Amino acid sequence: MEMMKDYGLILGRIVTIFPLMLIITLFMGRRSIGELPVFDYLIILALGAVVGADIADPQIHHLPTAFAIIMIGIFQKIFSYAVIRFRKFGKRVTFEPIIVIHNGKLIYRNIKKARYTIENILQMLRQSQVFNLSIVDLAVIEPNGELSILEKSNAASSSSVVYPVIREGQIQSHVLPFFHLKEQWIHDQLRHKDVKLNEIFLATLDDQLHLHITRYTEQGHGHLPPLYQ
Known about the structure:
CRO Repressor; elongated; 16% strand; four-stranded antiparallel sheet; cell membrane; 7 helices; 45% helix; alpha+beta; transmembrane
């Protein structure tokens, strides 16, 4: 009998708590889960923890849980206002867009700052139907983690697929047989371009045997267009 009472209590809490959650969510504003800033994501986690504990444990008082949900919603609204109203504060507590490709070159420092890898960037390019790094004029990792891409005006004329032959100073020897090449050809090309192997962050090769090189030191921060003031 006691167990049935607990089950009824849990059911009653579910019926009352979810309409309140819906109201608070609408109050917080429309935004897809994939676009949540860091703080809003933490708010969702906090709400989930509070609601989950309230539903699962009948011993927890229900009214304090409802009060906590309302206060979390109000706090989120105040925080969002502060982010918009005070720009310096907003820059400190949110991710800013980061340029990771400029004029066909990867920006190593910014990729490292965003904690991404070459594989992450190349995958995101492929998902956007971009298979040649050299046709990208600008690529930006947005605060929601997505990659925004601006292709060069002549992109259509140079959109062949390219293959990484050097990654982080290491020759990808398994790729070379596809082009009927040997490592010595790579070394000869680097010598001709006066580039050392350990200076290369990424080098790609197209079907015309054009070697496209990005160095670790490519594009200092001062040369990049400003995106976030």
